[in-house]
Amino acid sequence: MLKICTIIVGAMAALVTAAFPAAADGRPVQGEIEVIDTIRVLKLRGSPVQMGYAHGYLLADDIVHLIEDYMLGTLYDVDNYWKTVALINSFVRVPLAHHLEVAAMYQGLVDARGTNGMYSPKLKRDLLPVDLIAWNMVPEIFRLTFQDTSFAAGPLRFSSSVSGWGAGAAGTALVFARDLDFGYPGDLLDQRSIAIAYQPGCLLQHEWLSVAWPGMIGCLTCMNDEGTGAALDLGNYAPELEDLLIEHDGIYVALPFAYTPITLALRQGVENKRSFLRQPDRIADLYAIVGGIGVAGSFDIHVFSAERDSAGVQPAYPAAVIECSHQGAALRTAADNQQYEPRLLSELFLAVTNHHRTLMSPVACERYALQVERLNSLERLDMETALDIERDVAQDEGPYNTVHMVGFAPETRRIWLAFAQGELRAREVEPVQLSWEDLFE
Predict the structure, then answer these.
(1) C-alpha closest to that of 406 among 233, 167, 151
(2) Out of 99-108, 249-258, 287-296, 363-372, which region has the weakest mean confidence (pLDDT)?
(3) How large a percentage of the chain has pLDDT more than 90?
(4) Per-residue pLDDT, 22
(5) What is the pLDDT of residue 430?
(6) Residues near 220 by Cβ (< 8 Å), separated by ≥ 6?
(7) For position 23, what pLDDT does the model report?
(8) Do the Cβ atoms of 137 and 88 come closer than 8 Å?
(9) Average pLDDT, integer, range 246-253
(10) CA 316, 322, 327 angle in degrees (round to 5)?
(11) Strand ranges (DSSP E) for 9-122?
(12) Confidence of residue 81 (pLDDT cuts 50, 70, 90)
């Protein structure tokens, strides 16, 4: 749904390229990078165009390095990358505001590095805005059949999370902790984690925090100023191109713009304030958004909220799991904890790894079993224990590695972040505690 602010920004689209070179010559860039007790934070303000430009301009070298040496060097099959670009141009729907943000980010890259700094030796052409979209679609793309990477085979061991609330959480407020597992120890992702604080200039949008990497504008791990957030985990069903599109003589056809990047859909649910057209329950609202798009991957999304928002609305469950793929979406709540083995005994806890349990029959997962075992031994879950459980299931051998660990306390908007520090991996680092005021003016 287009918002008033998006329409206003859309009217400015033709001015994007012309406006920004002057900004690089001395006009204020709407953002800055700060380091808060070892945590690198990118602070962005203003419209999607302003935030996108600042993002690209301030992190230009990081973004190009990640695309050239990580996305094209490790994740994607460069020989078949033209197929990826063709699929994105034909079948991926990028919401207007995010499309403008990506275009502005690209202009920021050009202004910071110069046109010569945009050449990709791997692609033998200049990088383009579509390459930024491809970077934002890593959760969907890197497991496509023609990519044929080392990540595509074997059991999924990518990410996990736990939550507890009510009488099951210390102080009765919800506790959420997750680790994001991807890549190899010491690789570019391991060394480039960043917290991005978005402060939109639109009254219809929330401030929100993203924990991700330079160049990513969607929600991998995020929370807004109301305490609503999400953490994306890969699911255990990886669709092939033939599941998503119709193939005929090597040409793929389907409805144009049929699929929305999952991280951008989650961002819409977290960033945009709810109107009378949206669900009053934050969990139900996120579920409706994900269920209403074309999903091109397989995901288990741990969503959560403050137990009461500013309007006093209380969801049936403060946390849930949205399981989704091209086959549909299902909502798993703590009421489903004892439907399958291993049984999580409490209805005040949730555990998530990389397999569906409601959308399809679950598969055995030793990490999930360990989470359940730890939670079944507890009466209450505090943040220290939640992060400790996540350390128990953290990954430390390539191609799986815990890139960062995150804790959220939605009621108080407190954040715990652990990024890799040199030789120390994220799970070995003492988390830094941040308040909302540390990140937002």
Answers:
(1) 233
(2) 249-258
(3) 68
(4) 47
(5) 96
(6) 139, 180, 210, 211, 212, 231, 232, 263
(7) 57
(8) yes
(9) 73
(10) 135
(11) 31-36, 39-46, 119-120
(12) very high
Please provide residue 314's backbone torsions phi and psi, each rounded to the nearest 5 degrees: -120, 120
DSSP string, 358-420: SSS-----HHHHHHHHHHHT-S-B-HHHHHHHHHHT--EETTEEEEEEEEEETTTTEEEEEE-
Alpha-carbon span 337 to 346, nearest angstrom: 7
d(CA 225, CA 208): 6
What kind and span of H or E run contains 302? strand 298-304
Kindly list the distances between the CA atom of residue 289 and the CA atoms of 15, 134, 256, 279, 323, in Å, as whole numbers in the listed order: 31, 22, 19, 10, 13
Contact (CB, 8 A) for 56 and 33:
no
Cα–Cα distance measured from residue 435 to residue 135, given in angstroms and rounded to the nearest whole number: 29
Q: Give the pLDDT confidence of 176-200 residue by residue, as tens digits.
A: 999 999 888 888 888 999 999 999 9
Q: Which fold has domain 153-186+226-433?
A: Penicillin V Acylase; Chain A (3.60.60)
51 alpha-carbon distance from chain centroid: 17
Average pLDDT for 419-425? 89
Exposed/middle/buried for 288, CB within 10 Å: 0-12, 13-18, 19+?
Answer: middle
pLDDT at 183: 83
Instruction: Round to whole Å and give the CA distance between 55 and 305.
Output: 27
Question: Rounded distance, CA 167 to CA 174, Å?
Answer: 10
Q: Count helices and strands (H / E) in the chain.
A: 15, 20
Residue 372, token pair as written in the block:
């359940």
pLDDT at 317: 85
What kind and span of H or E run contains 178?
strand 175-181
* pLDDT tens-digit map of 386-402: 999 999 999 877 677 89
Tell me the C-alpha distance between 168 and 384, whole Å. Answer: 14
Q: Look at residue 241 in the predicted model and tell me its pLDDT.
A: 78
Strands (E), 182-297: 194-200, 208-212, 221-224, 229-234, 246-248, 251-253
* Residues contacting 339, CB < 8 A, separation 6+: 357, 358
Angle (CA) 196 330 336, round 5°: 100
- CA–CA dist 222, 212 (Å, integer): 9
Residue 237 DSSP SS3: coil
Residue written as token pair 């670009």:
85
Burial class (CB in 10 A: 0-12, 13-18, 19+), 54: buried
Instruction: Answer whether 232's CB lies under 8 Å from 323's CB.
Output: no
